[in-house]
From TrEMBL:
Entries under PANTHER family matching the protein: RHAMNOGALACTURONAN ENDOLYASE, RHAMNOGALACTURONATE LYASE FAMILY PROTEIN
Gene name per UniProt: 11422528
Protein name (record): Rhamnogalacturonate lyase B-like protein
InterPro entries: Carb-bd-like_fold, Galactose-bd-like_sf, Polysacch_Lyase_4, RG-lyase_II, RG-lyase_III, Rhamnogal_lyase
Organism from which the protein derives: Medicago truncatula
Keywords: Lyase, Signal
GO molecular function: carbohydrate binding; lyase activity
Upper taxonomic lineage: Eukaryota, Viridiplantae, Streptophyta, Embryophyta, Tracheophyta
Length: 523
């Protein structure tokens, strides 16, 4: 606690000594449970805040458990206004980059209101980078500061420590902030004040008060800056600065490995409108530079090891990302942004509504949307015709299984129909498949061949353990596949690509696509 500060800080230092045995850790967090008779209004974003039911409403006979224990339909809540709604903590998950302040507001009999907020001034200690999704506040009333979890990523993010492997990491500090308003119940006023306090905490990072030698001050850290340009010669044969690209330092690894990295720290920023970036307060150590750019597929990585020392200032100059490109674009579906949000997300079953997300930009957070596919396509699977169909209306956001009458499930095969005015039968075409999330799915690709018993042109094998569909997400881990298509497989005129999701082990198996593109031979 600091003098004059309306709250308190907490942090943790995790240690694995060299002589200790091997060890796995899948989730770790700080949890706060507030008084249920006091705190009844929750806020996690400007457009994600509401009055919440009581935790008692989740228990039978007031609540009915749905497909998994976290999801409960409120059939007879204490307060009738919540009747028929679904409560599920995963409906309130947040990406790490926006999971900086959330909490609850209480109102007492005198009409005074009090806010209790969890503020995370830096996500440098969280695993897996800025897009990793974490739980925050949810019914309880509960506030979580999750340091590490496997949610929306699966087994790839289980922290594994071998024998003779020393490790230490500082998680936090985080700030628990309290504010109040004596002018009656005003959630907006308290929320805006909490957001301003979050800004104050961010500007004070790294803090000067921790006594531990493991938490380094700003003077003991370094700075890294430069400029990022993009060159896609089939769009514009020039080096183009990009605005809003994410640029980060993380442990040395392979292209895109930052999204599965958990033992070290990560430091991210975004480029300005001229492509310049500056990453400050970087802890000493060895890093690779990583980046991704909305509007372009793939990941950028600077393979040179970047060594940050105390007080160092490194300017790397201009870096150029040349995204994967084989030939001119013949057609494309979606937007390369690592998310399936641009595709068609249906209205929920009226029995399973969370009213917060009605007419909301995050409509994908409703419960049970995986069941809506069979409602829309009861007998035949999705067919998309290039040049006629609209991916915003005609491409379902997730390729899921179809439930059969005997409570079993079957895989699904989607079709992409397209027309070619001419074909270079001796040339090589390229199919780009960017996936936003996968759960126990196998994607098989066939071209102009519907025979599912024949060997596919390409198969991913069974991949992914992200459970994004069940947890109301719109992305998990990013997967990119680049598939050679011999011109002899194509014909002048009408062609069809068959996308078969072959596994059928339950309702949550499936694929969220990010972006699909067919490129012609190089010109």
């Amino acid at each position: 606690m600091l003098r004059g500060s309306s709250g308190f800080y907490t942090y943790a230092i995790y240690d694995h000594l060299k002589e200790w045995p091997a060890f796995d850790l899948d989730n770790t967090r700080v949890a706060f449970k507030l008084r249920k008779d006091k705190f009844n209004y929750m806020a996690i974003a400007d457009n994600r805040q509401r009055f919440m039911p009581l935790p008692d409403d989740r228990l039978p006979p007031r609540g009915q458990v749905l497909a998994y224990p976290e999801a409960v339909r409120l059939v007879n809540p204490v307060e009738p206004e919540f009747k028929g709604e679904v409560d599920d903590k995963y409906e309130y998950a947040c990406e790490s980059r926006s999971n900086q302040v959330h909490g609850w507001i209480s109102i007492d009999s005198s009409s005074d209101s009090t806010g209790c907020w969890l503020i995370t001034p830096s996500y440098e200690f969280r695993s897996a980078g800025p897009l990793k999704q974490y739980l925050g506040s949810h019914l309880g009333p509960t506030m979580l500061s999750v340091f590490h979890s496997t949610h929306y990523s699966g087994a790839d993010l289980i922290m594994k420590f071998g024998e003779n492997e020393p490790w230490k990491k500082v998680f936090g500090p985080i700030f628990i902030y309290l504010n109040s308003n004596s002018d009656g119940f005003s959630p907006i006023k308290l929320w805006e004040d909490a957001k301003q306090q979050m800004v104050n905490e961010v500007e004070s990072w790294p803090y000067t008060f921790p006594a531990s030698e493991d938490f380094l001050s700003s003077a003991q850290r370094g700075k890294f800056e430069g400029r990022l340009l993009v060159r896609d010669r089939y769009i514009r044969d020039a080096f183009v600065p990009v605005s809003g690209a994410y640029v980060g330092l993380a442990a040395p690894g392979d292209v895109g490995s930052w999204q599965r990295e958990y033992k070290g720290y990560q430091f991210w920023t975004i480029t300005d409108d001229k492509g310049y970036f500056s990453i400050i307060n970087v802890l000493p150590g060895d890093y690779n530079l990583y980046s991704w750019v909305n509007g372009f597929i793939g990941d950028y990585q600077c393979n040179n090891i970047i060594n940050i020392t105390s007080g160092s200032e490194i300017n790397v100059g201009e870096l150029v990302y040349e995204p994967p490109r084989h030939g001119p674009t013949l057609w494309e579906i979606g937007i390369p942004d690592r998310s399936a949000a641009e595709f068609y997300v249906p209205d929920p079953n009226p029995l399973y509504v969370n009213r917060l997300y009605v007419n909301h930009s995050d409509r994908f957070r409703q419960y049970g949307l995986w069941e809506r596919y069979a409602d829309l396509y009861p007998n035949e699977d999705l067919v998309y015709t290039v040049g006629i169909s609209d991916y915003k209306k005609d491409w379902f956001f997730a390729q899921v299984t179809r439930k059969k009458d005997n409570n079993t499930y079957q895989g699904t095969t989607w079709r992409i129909n397209f027309n070619l005015d001419s074909v270079n039968t001796k040339g090589t075409y390229k199919l780009r498949l960017a996936l936003a999330s996968v759960h126990y799915a196998e994607l098989q690709i066939r071209i102009n061949n519907l025979d599912a018993t024949s060997p596919p042109l390409f198969s991913t094998g069974v991949i992914g353990k992200e459970n994004t569909i069940a947890r109301h997400g719109i992305h998990g881990l990013y997967w990119l596949y680049n598939i050679d298509v011999q011109g002899s497989l194509l014909v002048k005129g009408n062609n069809t690509i068959f996308l078969t999701q072959a596994t059928k082990d339950g309702p949550f198996v499936g694929i969220l696509y990010d972006y699909i593109r067919l490129e012609g031979p190089p010109t």
